Amino acid sequence: MELGLAGQADALRKGEVSSVELVEASLESIGRQESLGAFRVVREAAVEEAREADKRLAERERLPLLGVPVAIKDDTDIAGETTPFAVAGDHRPAERDGEVVRKLRAAGAIIVGKTTTCEIGLWPFSESPEYGAARNPWNPEYTPGGSSGGSAAAVAAGMVAGAVGSDGAGSIRIPAAWTGLVGIKPQRGRVSGFPHTDPFNGITVWGPLARSVKDAALMLDVLSGSHPEDVYQVGRPVLPFVDATRREPGRLRIAVSYRTAFGVSGKLDPEIREAVERTARRLTELGHKVFPADPDYGLVGLGLVPRGTVGVAEWLDSMPNPRPEARTEVEARIGRTLGKRLLPLARKMDPYLRKKVGRIFRYADVVLTPTTAQPPLKVGAFDGAGYQKTQSGVAAACPYAWTWNVLGWPGVNVPAGFTGNGLPIGAQLLGHDSDEATLISLAAQLEVVERWTERRP
């Protein structure tokens, strides 16, 4: 699949390729690379849906992704399939599509399968005892990240040109960093997670993973818009995000920060620091004002832990006869006790935290940080580890992404190079309230000179 999402959609409109050809090629690629474990479910029904798409194309129907194969993460409902979110249990097939799937279908996309994740999205790896491990196409001994690692692996390996992930503490941006992709965490409320009206109490959002900024922006345009029952309502942008990829961002003020939030350890790998510094130099060469400055995070961690732990408890409690790992159950137990008591306080802190951290935007338009502190972890690095060991280990590896989930603001991972042994490194562009367009425009400008779309596993 050399063509990206936009390229495939254009080729379909011009009649240069059929949807059946694209979908069959996608399914062949998934089967040929089955050892990567990117998919939990592969939908053979996608071929028949592609035939219908070809009929609609022949009748001159035009939709943004009509006939284009895509993938969704296994935390998202699609009618007729279960949504175990990597937890063993007596799961029942979903009766109707979730809002993410409804919007993809409304745009004409063909969903070829559901991708591998970890239990309830807890970790920056995509492994579970029940459903196996997703592996990194750049080196299968390493994880593609998590919890949207299956989606990232599917795109990086060329099985699909774009996939949907979800991000509650970096779960789109971390896999994007570790597989060399663009991953967008949208503004809270931009993309509906319905039937989840307040997913993980406000920290989780759904968004795109793609090789190029244009493809990610196109998918974000398709996904954008609130459901009437959503707690957070943002709606569609005034202009399509794909338009932001075509315009110059102007001269931006970019603050470079390596600070982690209070109470979070994380020794920054020197190769990652060098990659971020090189990206900063590139941004300077592009005419931006780049300078060191740190957001004042304060007690932002108090906004994460109650939301996350309660969210895990709520998701687990909604499952029929779940049989989770012990460490997942520990997280849920914390949510049912301490997290539940602290959740009202976490919500009350939102305006204070946004004001405190938001002061950085008085003198910066964008914040540039590492996406992770460490390069990709080995597959199985935390097999058999208890809750405390896993939690402390992954917190040290990935201390940079989760703060923006608490704030609800947008962030974009951009590829930033490679480690000495050939594993991808990412940097993240972090923006202010509802300002995805600035991040997308800046990322598109950077892509032109960095040419990361040309690098393949």
Automatic annotation (TrEMBL):
Q: What is this protein called?
A: Amidase
Domain of life, per UniProt, equals Bacteria
- The membrane spanning regions, by residue number, are none
Note the Pfam families from the entry.
Answer: Amidase (PF01425)
Check the record and name the InterPro entries matching this protein.
Amidase, Amidase_CS, Amidase_dom, AS_sf
- What broad taxonomic lineage does this protein's source fall under? Bacteria, Bacillati, Actinomycetota, Actinomycetes, Streptosporangiales
Which family does the similarity line name? Belongs to the amidase family.
Q: Name one GO molecular function term.
A: catalytic activity
Using the record's annotation, list all stretches that form the Amidase domain.
Answer: 21-439
